[in-house]
């Protein structure tokens, strides 16, 4: 980096006056085009400097002056921040697991292993905390955006007073990029209409390559470069996002280095692995199959991981395993031969996905090494944003979308239909929760369970050859993902800004763990002493080794019942001394009632401070609750030309309602085919299209059944009006106000008409009540990504007729006073 030149005389005085006090410029600019400077804090961006040269009427009598280019402090390293998805403590080989994670192993050998960094128990809340350094409710992410509600702690909006680490580093001279999962853009701001301030490029990341939402089909993802949807997989049947993302990251890092080798980079690297769907390549699946890692079942796997962790010195010899949850998940020896065969396939695909992702991370690190930058790159590799997911239920599922619609106990015999294609583009697969319990060893429970260490205890490795000399060291201090931002700021020498874009910044709530990089502090007490946890009504409070937690009252797959009406007080409280009880196994609440009282009071204090109230224990009900998307309050939608890529959260919702779709088209000579309107995809959705000039309407019911209305006569050339009218029999989303799911997914009658004449009428006994396939879009005139009916067409299936007008009218049911009273009584009875 170029140092600013020193000035003398009157010009020096001008230069010193060039930046307003709020800019806090550290060096004096000389006016040379080569000048650089660092910032000392204050406001971002710094105010524009006053001109420091001299202006006369003629250039020959004037003195030019250039504002200095802002650069990071001289010794600021590159930063690669990696966070994987849905992976518990016992997943990677680095921490006793059986799944080979060679990249993490190598980084651990060269750096440090951390065994006590904690998450929030859910993905986007953890990620909001990670990039802001604030607790997830402080950052507006008490839950995922798809469950957001109109309270500051739950609206899924990262407020402007909480600038991300990307924004801070970018304004201080870093190149910044975000690869992979972005689950921090509100679902109601994810369309082409924006706004884009909550997208990565609006939060301080100059470049984004990834998907928006909780998960993605890795074979055909809903993929963006910055804010533009892209389709690099088209025409490449073996293409997979895990590799595609690594390729793009390598290209970007290399390109930035070639342009300016002296400018450091900050990369957030967030692969979709191992969130469902589990989509590894066939080569990686073959590698894992050949290892025969899981033939003895999940009970034996749990014990094996536990013993490995003791041998590695990761957990105390005195650590205990909690009893197997037989009331929730049957032991391996009680399964049928068919179930065992299916479950082994499920977990081998999961393991292949994890190993494959770790390998591709290694390719990115290898590229950094080839550039000669590895020694001066701080790598933080966090295993999981929460514990392993059990959202596949005890039996697993070939279609995770089914889980989110309440179908989570599909028998093994039925699932065997997908056995040979498990993990391919034909499945949106998840594994049995028995494996998830084992992968959270030595702890128990899962993702979503914020009161158990299995839901919130992660591990990570940190490597920085120039900054860490205690190679292979172990660190056991209590930490939380909110500690990452202050650590990065301390290491780079960049202070947290007092104001960004004129907005005063809220304090960063995390605590730097940079002190642990020093071997002398290997056993130093943790500097993070107190931390609350809360997720969907389950909560805990850590303080100086004590853990107060609520007894688990809901497994993750139990999302559709009545919620606890008072999650703060209507709880069984448990108390653990983690200094002697490593695995949260021995409840001593009865022995220390005063400590229970003290810690509950402290939890309430923390909850008030960080926007946890009002607490809400509902799960599925919040998915379909009204929120301020661009369709809110509208009942009629009109389109006059093809359009694709409108995400589910910003498109007309045809669930739990009556509706009419009317398409005015002009069929050319020779007939027509193609998609008129579709939403969703292979795993849940609907579509109105022409097949051999005949109108067809299809509901894809979670890839389990396809209900079809079809015309028998081809449309003659010329203008036609095709209409699909559906009369819904259920009570609709109004039931959610009373915390009841009884009015959702009801039946109804659909009628297909052509030019006003009835073609076919069919009754549906039930409909999809919660959500369509979320990584697919609302498309007009063609079908992006996967199709809703593979038997009839292959995307994009462009419409060859002329679309003149498409109208969607929605008639949502309203509850009568009698219905409201009845539902309120049902809710009160369910909560008793």
TrEMBL record:
Keyword annotations of the record: Calcium, Hydrolase, Metal-binding, Signal
Keyword Metal-binding: yes
Signal peptide: 1-26
CDD domains: PAS_like
Taxonomy, superkingdom: Bacteria
Domain Sulfatase N-terminal per the UniProt entry, residue ranges: 77-494
Region (Disordered): 26-53
Start-end of Polar residues biased regions: 29-40
Keyword match Iron: no
Similarity comment: family membership: Belongs to the sulfatase family.
Protein name (Swiss-Prot/TrEMBL): Arylsulfatase
